[in-house]
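stage 2 :: seqdesign
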């Protein structure tokens, strides 16, 4: 297989784009693609200050590298959840994020759950979950809360996450199977700011997991290769696995599924999300000031209050 641009040996063949590229041209191509989607979906401009959520994995570090090369003003946010799972998951992920930032002279904010609330995610999840439920719902809540609060408090113009095409297609499939109109109306690459929520953007929404992994390897980025020990058996991995099987048989099916969803949204297929505080009947949390539908304290403040 040869690179379409220069005829050298190809480093990657992307069947869904009918495109093979060498290492140099693939890296250039991925940077161009990312910039194209930033502009197409009007995510942000060079004058915006961006908070990039960084997990230490391939997607977030590849995306941060690309935003940095494109000259955007970025600060990273790493949330240390204190997950060990026998592999020192959080400590090693944090190290990857720190090393990445240091090598490029970038600023990385670290939110350390144990220092902030006195316990790690697995303890917090134990206090709050029912039965043998995984800690993922508590984890999701903590991450969404910390990301939004950090972005709002420090006045960033947008919160950037590295959700990729595989993530978006898997979420879309799950929400379609449930016909969850509420969630289907929130799957766009840009969620505008409003009612105490920061603007959220996903520049990698059309970039596949395989492409972002190839980018980090070809760029020599050291990322956390192990998955979170709690991810095994998750619904999202189940959907990703099946989407990948379909992709093998029908190259491009994932991208078509997601792009056609965006077209359907544009055509008004699902009700647009209403974001005003009145419509969502939001109040301000009495402790942290974050938006909440509950009276008094938000879910995070209630959950993390010492019992
Ligand atoms: S980090 Fe958290 Fe994931 Fe681990 S505990 Fe579950 S949600 S699997 S993206
Ligand atoms: Zn080439
Ligand atoms: Zn609160």
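stage 2 :: out
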């Amino acid at each position: 297989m040869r690179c379409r641009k220069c005829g050298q040996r190809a480093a990657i063949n992307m069947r869904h784009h009918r495109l093979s590229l060498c290492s140099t041209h693939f890296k250039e191509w991925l940077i161009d693609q990312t910039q194209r989607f930033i502009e197409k979906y009007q995510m942000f401009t060079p004058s915006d200050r961006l908070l990039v959520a960084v997990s230490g994995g391939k997607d977030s570090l590849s995306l941060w590298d690309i935003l940095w090369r494109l000259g955007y003003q970025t600060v990273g946010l790493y949330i240390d959840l204190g997950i060990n799972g026998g592999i020192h998951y959080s400590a090693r992920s944090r190290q990857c994020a720190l090393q990445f930032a240091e090598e490029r002279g970038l600023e990385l904010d670290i939110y350390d759950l144990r220092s902030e609330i006195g316990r790690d995610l697995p303890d917090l999840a134990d206090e709050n979950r029912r039965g043998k439920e995984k800690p993922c719902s508590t984890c999701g809540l903590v991450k969404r809360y910390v990301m939004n609060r950090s972005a709002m408090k420090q006045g960033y113009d947008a919160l950037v996450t590295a959700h990729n095409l595989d993530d978006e297609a898997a979420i879309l499939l799950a929400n379609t199977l449930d016909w969850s109109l509420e969630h289907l109306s929130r799957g766009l690459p840009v969620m505008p700011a409003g009612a105490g929520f920061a603007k959220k953007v996903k520049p990698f929404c059309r970039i596949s997991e395989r492409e972002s992994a190839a980018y980090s390897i070809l760029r020599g980025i050291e990322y956390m290769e192990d998955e979170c020990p709690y991810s095994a058996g998750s619904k999202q991995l189940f959907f990703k696995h099946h989407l990948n099987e379909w992709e093998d048989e029908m190259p491009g099916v994932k991208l078509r599924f997601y792009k056609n969803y965006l077209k359907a949204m544009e055509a008004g297929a699902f009700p647009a999300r209403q974001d005003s505080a009145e419509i969502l009947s939001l109040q301000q949390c009495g402790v942290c000031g974050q938006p909440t539908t509950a009276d008094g304290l938000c879910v995070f403040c209630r959950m993390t209050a010492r019992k």
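stage 3 :: structure notes
- The pocket of zinc ion (ligand 2) is lined by residues 3, 5-6, 8, 21-22, 24-25 (CB under 6 Å).
- The chain has a mean pLDDT of 94.
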